[in-house]
Amino acid sequence: MKKLIIISLSLLFNSYSFAQPFSMYIAAKPISCNSYTYEIEVYKYGYPVSNLLMPLILSFGDGTVDEISLDNYSFFDDNNGRAITIYKRVHTFPGAGIYDISLRFFNRSHDIRNMAHSINTPFYIESRIIIDPFLGCNSTPVLENMTYLIKKGTNYMQDFSFTDIENDSLSFCFATPMQDDSIPVIDYQIPMEYELELNNPISRISLDPINGSMFLNAKNLEYAQSAVLEVNEWRKVDGKYYQMSRTNLDFVIYYIETDNNTPEISQITDTAIIIGKEFRHLIVATDPDNDSIQLNSYGDLFQFFDIVHNELSGYNPGPLEKSISFSPASENVRPLPYKAIFSVNNKSLNNNMSMYIWVADKAHIPDPVQYFTARESGPGIIKLDWIDVDDELGYIIERSDKFSQNTSAL
Questions:
Q1: Are residues 329 and 394 in the same domain?
Q2: Residues 6+ apart with CB under 8 A from 192
Q3: pTM
């Protein structure tokens, strides 16, 4: 790495004030379900600070609040370019019910381009927990991976990995950043680009509502862009799905000017596995500038399988290899795929790729769909219709647009 690049990144970090949060969300896990006692954790991606203009007030949604003391936190750097501060509180709720746990943090960083006056705008984050003895004990999902530094002129793809220890179903959608309870930030727009021939802002962001994969055609975006990912948790009881929690992840993507290049990961292919068969795969990570890199893995695949894989620690010269192997059993069969995310970083830039793995109880060669049609149902909206002729577990739809020669799975 050249000295000039290190200096420019140092200036960038000072400019964006790494004490300010890049992303925040709230998690809750039960200590005693019988007494309705929970440990509440506020995850702040960024360094702890001691010079806040106003105290951090955590509201539990039951009419009580608590001030977060700055000497009561845990902090760690996970060697993936992320500083994470976790503020913790233990709280006993009065009984079963729906509780919106919230916190305001003063303030956001400057130069967030898709809202007005970001430097004077607070973070307001909220998580809803539903305590219902009929539905059982529950912990909210916890985020495993986060990226916030992107090289200007490149597209952004983020596969969010939220783990849920009860194996509940998760769904994902975008929400509007808030600055207080029921008060959105001023003049918020989702990250946009301009079609040159129309001089018209067009959204180039997409999100898989089931798997949490986000793609942003961001080659012409710069500075910082803000977004909120809403994660809803569902539990199936007696054949019916009930909502268990709602978590809002408020995060910022920073586009930086650098001569450094994003590290690369070998091509990864989605696949299906028959129970009782061993699955093996080799992942290879490299860096175009021959910088030292780190290769990590996330996702529910590693949560529900005893996977044999070689451990890698710290930063090492590439190429780096990670091999994984496991054999699924009949209890691992489910309609949705398992997700494995492989992430490589060179201390400044990050790249990640995901692999979706279906586990099936029998070999199945899918038949082609019939009567496939595509029609425009609105401005920028294409409706697809087809007839399923067999018992496929699901479909992968790939798309491409005039801005990219590559297809991306939805």
A1: no
A2: 114, 201, 202, 203, 204
A3: 0.80
